[in-house]
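Subject: design request, 578 residues
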């Protein structure tokens, strides 16, 4: 596993150096792996200091939660290894106030022993120390002699205890409040793959392409159950169902939900899961008052998530809403809108008018050929995606197929367009809205320019009309897109196809289209010899040589689909050619 590090043995020291340098509210205890508040943000002496920590590899935990409103110190151990007793003791001595220190410890043997012994040492020196044990693992429940593992509820404990400490609450009151929270809080995780420790050549477990691990901890270990890949909604349903049953959450209960990335899960996935989690909680009539999604307590780069659900009361919600000025948690968290997600009215965008009557013969035929082109793009989705992945961002096939499906879905409306020009305008509108990236605007522009060229024609357009319209569309794409033949873009197929169609003389529209398809394919194939100078392919430079441009191949596929449809059609070939 490739990592951006200097040396495996130096990762903790290098992490501390970078974190403290970038965050003025943080400092470190000289020579020790302990992150503390800067002198300017140090807590008042009559407020208890909060200290947490554990093995590294869980970033942003725990150092990311040091600051006003949360922790006073975080003690960092080696990756997935508890910090030493001496380092925990040093953190207590360095940060304890006149009110003492409160240690927040996850329920792992090493953490409990090392933090516990350090607390005893501090007490012998006259420092008042209390300790909170976080044990929120719903996957194991109470079945293990070692007890529930400490997971992401730790983050909520940091926030609530931190806010209470800032308010000046006594350690006893804070401990009682956290115990009330933890009694009705649980977490469960699911992983799509393993993580790799710095310097390791293999992970702790391996998964097949369709396998996932349910109920895992935070130290790179396998879960409690091997399962099959599921959808986000299915994952949300199982996580929520397990947690609700584990803690006996009843109908009407106010809850908060924290969706945590285990390190390798992008925000796109997290937000999809967050929506599904909120829906699963709502289906059980649980009232979600706050929710968060992001990397809060990770396992290096592990792809996966954990869900923490906590039953809360008004006091806990107030503490969660208090300001926190730390690196890894929102400064403020608002209550969710009780009426649900907000939707604002959509503006009235361009929509092609129709007369609602029967279409002309040429429109019916155009639509038949459009359907053929759409089908070809849908069939070629994987081919174009694979090709684009080699030289671009891999989205071309998906984008064009999405547009093709949207055109098919609008079939009833398209069929009622009064003429060819307004038909193409309507398709242009759909393509503009549905096809992303660069292709969407360019195809929309091509169709719009062709529609302008066909506007005002009485009856079905002739082959010459279509030739002029295609030439105008090709020229407009080149002017606006900035590409010319030889730049290794869609223009390398579109331009020769338009030229071929225009120079075919007295040939039938059917033969013109066949010739144009050959020209498009030849142009597309030739791009494999070119060094791209525009588009995403240009970013990979010489590495794109030998691979035909995906956009040009897509143009060739469409002309070939049109030629095939014309060959199978009984329509007179003096007209309807797209």
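Subject: RE: design request

Done. Sequence follows.
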């Amino acid at each position: 596993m490739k990592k951006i590090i200097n040396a495996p043995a130096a990762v903790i020291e290098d992490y501390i150096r970078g974190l403290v340098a970038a965050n003025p509210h943080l400092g470190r205890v000289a020579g020790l792996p302990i992150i503390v508040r800067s002198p300017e943000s140090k807590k008042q002496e009559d407020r208890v200091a909060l200290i947490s920590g554990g093995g590294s590899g869980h970033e942003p935990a725990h150092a990311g939660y040091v600051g006003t409103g949360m922790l006073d110190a975080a003690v960092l151990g080696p990756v997935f290894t508890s910090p030493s007793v001496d380092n925990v003791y040093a953190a207590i001595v360095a940060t304890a106030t006149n009110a003492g220190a409160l240690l927040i410890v996850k329920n792992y043997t090493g953490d409990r022993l090392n933090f516990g012994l350090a607390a005893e040492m501090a007490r012998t020196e006259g420092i008042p120390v209390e300790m909170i044990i976080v044990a929120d693992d719903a996957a194991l429940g109470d079945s293990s002699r070692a007890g529930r593992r400490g997971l992401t509820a730790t983050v909520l404990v940091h926030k609530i205890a931190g806010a209470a400490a800032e308010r000046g609450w006594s350690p006893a009151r804070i401990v009682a409040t956290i115990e009330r929270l933890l009694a009705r809080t649980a977490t469960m995780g699911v992983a799509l793959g393993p993580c790799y420790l710095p310097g390791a050549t293999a992970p702790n477990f391996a998964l097949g392409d369709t396998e996932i691990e349910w109920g895992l901890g935070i130290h790179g270990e396998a879960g409690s159950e091997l399962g099959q890949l599921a959808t986000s909604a299915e994952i949300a349903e199982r996580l929520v169902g397990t947690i609700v049953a584990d803690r006996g959450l009843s109908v009407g209960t106010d809850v908060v939900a924290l969706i945590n990335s285990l390190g390798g899960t992008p925000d796109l996935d997290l937000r999809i899961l967050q929506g599904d989690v909120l829906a699963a909680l709502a289906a059980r009539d649980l009232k979600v008052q706050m929710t968060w999604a992001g990397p809060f307590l990770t396992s290096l780069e592990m792809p996966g998530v954990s869900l923490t659900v906590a039953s809360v009361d008004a006091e806990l919600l107030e503490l969660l809403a208090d300001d926190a000025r730390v690196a890894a948690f929102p400064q403020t968290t608002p209550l969710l809108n009780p009426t649900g997600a907000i939707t604002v009215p959509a503006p009235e965008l361009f929509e092609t008018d129709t007369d609602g009557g029967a279409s002309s013969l040429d429109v019916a035929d155009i639509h038949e050929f459009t359907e053929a082109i759409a089908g070809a793009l849908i069939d070629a989705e994987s081919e174009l995606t694979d090709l684009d992945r080699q030289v671009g961002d891999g989205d071309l096939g998906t984008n064009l197929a999405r547009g093709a499906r949207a055109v098919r879905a609008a079939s009833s409306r398209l069929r009622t367009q009064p003429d060819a020009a307004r038909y193409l305008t309507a398709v242009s509108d759909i393509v503009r809205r549905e096809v992303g990236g660069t292709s969407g605007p360019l195809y929309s522009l091509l169709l719009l320019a062709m529609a302008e060229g066909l506007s005002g024609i009485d009856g079905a357009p002739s082959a010459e009309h279509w030739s002029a319209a295609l030439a105008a569309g090709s020229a407009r794409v080149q002017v606006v897109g900035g590409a010319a033949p030889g730049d290794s873009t869609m223009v390398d197929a579109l331009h020769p196809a338009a030229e071929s169609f225009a120079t075919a003389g007295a040939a039938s529209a059917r033969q013109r289209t066949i010739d144009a398809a050959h020209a498009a394919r030849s142009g597309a194939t030739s791009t494999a010899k070119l060094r791209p100078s525009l588009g995403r392919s240009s970013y990979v430079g010489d590495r794109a040589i030998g691979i035909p441009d995906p956009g040009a191949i897509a143009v060739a596929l469409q002309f070939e689909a049109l030629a095939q449809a014309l060959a199978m059609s009984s329509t007179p070939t003096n007209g309807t050619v797209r």
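The mean pLDDT is 92.
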